[in-house]
């Protein structure tokens, strides 16, 4: 949707009504309980539009608010956003200062108004290595957590500052500190419980914008599950609209309902081929995680899929003939 449309009188009211309507539509089918978002492309958007980088980050924050509103209208219980990576501390001091000032400004607005949090009952949780933050920023973030702690309808995890490797390191340290207890068992479930998201539903859907096809050290442990669908979008984050997220949610719900697995694993070659065609019709500019797996296994080639299907049919035919002979005998 073009930016100039947003200048029309009543646009925000129409947009809000549309989110509520489509949210009710989405809730008629399966809904992802936990959605992760890598909000990438703010700086590139600023350079492409010849504006200051800080303006790109500010527009990205507004995009986040609009997308989160749609997610909560659709019934999503947890949203985890990648707001600031530990690696971002390697950027220029000017940009780091602006990002910290932006965080203070926006979270101060949430503390003072908190309309989104109040309307949807959202609890804000800051996850990451908080020791790396300046004291003034840390204080405001703690105030936000305290103000919203009693909201129970949904949760917003703000990863600030965060990397998945640091999260795993934190989990291991926590496990070691508790390992002195008797009959303490260390396994995958133990590590999962000690992650920042250990008390929350598993991640069902991960979305990354800007046409970059990597996870950039975000929720690496949580996203390895075959039940987590990974979607890569070409749009830069400030260009990403609620309608783009809506298409992804419809796509996810459709595949979850019909195939029982939103990521495409465990499907027969025929189902996988039909599903790929349906995905191209629904979201032609979106690539999903299972397509990369197809390329590795060779299932993306229609000739190979057809030959595999033919082999399966021949096997079934021979088995049927054997059963028929037994019955005749």
TrEMBL record:
UniProt keyword Magnesium, yes or no: yes
Coiled-coil region list: none
InterPro entries documented for this protein: UPP_synth-like, UPP_synth-like_CS, UPP_synth-like_sf
Cellular component GO terms held in the UniProt record: dehydrodolichyl diphosphate synthase complex; endoplasmic reticulum; lipid droplet; membrane
Region named Disordered: 291-329
Record-linked PROSITE patterns: UPP_SYNTHASE (PS01066)
Pfam family of the protein (one): Prenyltransf
Gene3D superfamilies hit by this protein: Decaprenyl diphosphate synthase-like (3.40.1180.10)
Sorted UniProt keywords: Magnesium, Transferase
GO BP annotations, alphabetical order: polyprenol biosynthetic process
GO molecular function: ditrans,polycis-polyprenyl diphosphate synthase [(2E,6E)-farnesyl diphosphate specific] activity
Family matches, as NCBIfam families: uppS
UniProt protein name: Alkyl transferase
């Amino acid at each position: 949707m073009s930016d100039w449309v947003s200048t029309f009188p009543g646009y925000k009211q129409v947009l809000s009504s549309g989110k509520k309507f489509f949210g009710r539509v989405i809730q008629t089918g399966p809904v992802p309980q936990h959605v992760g978002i890598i909000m990438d492309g703010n700086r590139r958007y600023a350079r492409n539009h010849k504006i200051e980088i800080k303006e790109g980050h500010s527009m990205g924050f507004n995009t986040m608010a609009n997308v989160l509103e749609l997610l909560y209208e659709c019934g999503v219980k947890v949203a985890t956003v990648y707001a600031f990576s530990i690696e971002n501390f390697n950027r220029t001091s000017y940009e780091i200062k602006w990002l910290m000032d932006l965080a203070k400004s926006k979270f101060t607005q949430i503390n003072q108004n908190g309309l989104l949090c109040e309307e949807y009952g959202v609890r804000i949780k800051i996850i990451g290595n908080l020791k790396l933050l300046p004291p003034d920023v840390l204080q405001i973030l703690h105030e936000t957590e305290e103000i919203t702690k009693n909201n129970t309808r949904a949760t917003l995890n703000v990863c600030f500052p965060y990397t998945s490797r640091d999260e795993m390191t934190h989990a291991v340290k926590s496990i070691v500190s508790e390992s002195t207890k008797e009959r303490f068992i260390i396994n995958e479930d133990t590590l999962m419980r000690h992650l920042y998201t250990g008390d929350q539903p598993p991640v069902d859907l991960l979305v990354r914008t800007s046409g970059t096809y990597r996870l950039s050290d975000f929720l690496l442990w949580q996203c390895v599950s075959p039940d987590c669908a990974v979607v890569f979008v070409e749009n830069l984050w400030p260009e990403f609209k609620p309608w783009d997220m809506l298409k992804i949610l419809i796509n996810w719900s459709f595949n979850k309902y019909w195939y029982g697995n939103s990521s495409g694993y465990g499907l027969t070659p025929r189902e996988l081929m039909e599903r790929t065609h349906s995905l191209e019709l629904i979201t032609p500019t979106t690539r999903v995680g299972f397509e990369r797996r197809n390329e590795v296994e060779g299932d993306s080639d229609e000739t190979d899929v057809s030959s595999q299907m033919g082999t399966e049919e021949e096997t079934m035919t021979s088995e049927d003939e054997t059963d028929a002979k037994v019955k005749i005998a």
